[in-house]
Design brief:
Blueprint (H helix, E strand, L loop, with lengths): L2 H5 L8 E5 L4 H12 L3 E6 L2 H13 L4 E5 L5 H15 L4 E4 L14 H28 L4 E5 L12 H21 L5 E7 L5 H4 L3 H9 L13 H8 L10 E4 L7
Parallel strand pairs: 1-2, 1-4, 2-3, 4-5, 5-6, 6-7
Helix pairs in contact: 2-9, 4-5, 5-6
Length: 256
């Protein structure tokens, strides 16, 4: 390897990245990382003002960025997100499925409405967004899909079964997509974060947060920025021989 090849490993220049749930928390941190690595970034979330605020922030970092209001549970919105991305930037190279719904209900008291809402955002949305983006990913020379799952897919906790099952389903879809798309040159991987200091985490009771922190070796919450390195590895040429895998970023808490 020479200096030029080395410098290109994590370089995302001239690549277009879509990040769902990209206006706060892990999604915004990933969007910042992609912009700083040279990518054009499209952030998507439900609120139009949040989308524009995040996009303006990314542009202030020196990147090209737009925000597209999108409900991850709406298949029509997902198609519009892909269309707007391609109209604005001419293609789509990397898709990050980060939007999530953390609905929690105990088994025995689950409602069909909650089940549908959880599944639509956590499973159906990511899968159909990949389908919508597939023709454009096939045209890219650096195509990658990153599915943000969770250590909840490996562990178990009361009331969290819908969320955990959805994330486990996305791990299965990650592997299936990797196998199905390999002939098209599209790599598909996942990251399973442990407890991260985000709004979603802070919505939990402090006792639950303390329990999750206590289950890690490092005994603290991660910052959202600590997900960026793994994401850049999986979405850049640095991860060119990685597909169908899940990187666990959890402070050492998940049994292997």
């Amino acid at each position: 390897m020479d200096r030029t090849s080395f410098d290109r490993l994590f370089d995302m220049t001239d690549r277009t990245v879509v990040v769902t749930g990209g206006t706060r928390g892990i999604g915004l941190a990933l969007a910042e990382g992609f912009v700083l690595a040279g990518a054009r970034v499209v952030v998507a979330s439900r609120k139009a003002d949040s989308c524009e605020e995040a996009a303006a922030h990314l542009r202030a970092l020196g990147g090209q960025a737009i925000g597209v209001p999108t409900h991850a549970g709406s298949v029509d919105d997902l198609g519009a997100l892909v269309d707007r991305t391609v109209a604005e930037f001419g293609g789509l190279d990397v898709l990050v499925n980060n939007a999530a719904n953390a609905l929690a209900q105990p088994i025995g008291d689950m409602t069909t409405e909650a089940w549908t809402k959880s599944h639509d955002v956590n499973v159906r949305g990511p899968v159909f967004l990949v389908q919508k983006a597939l023709p454009h990913l096939r045209r890219s020379e650096h195509a990658a899909v990153l599915n943000m799952v969770s250590v909840g897919a490996f562990n178990f906790a009361p009331t969290m079964s819908m969320y955990a099952a959805g994330k486990a389903a996305m791990m299965a879809f990650t592997r299936a997509m990797a196998a199905e798309f390999v002939a098209d040159g599209i790599r598909v991987n996942a990251i399973a974060p442990g407890p991260v200091d985000t709004d979603m985490m802070r919505n939990n009771p402090q006792q639950a947060i303390d329990h999750m922190v206590g289950g890690t070796l490092v005994k603290r919450l991660a910052t959202a920025d600590e997900m960026v390195g793994a994401a850049l590895l999986l979405c850049s040429d640095a991860g060119s021989y990685m597909t169908g895998t899940v990187i666990i970023v959890d402070g050492g808490g998940t049994p292997r």
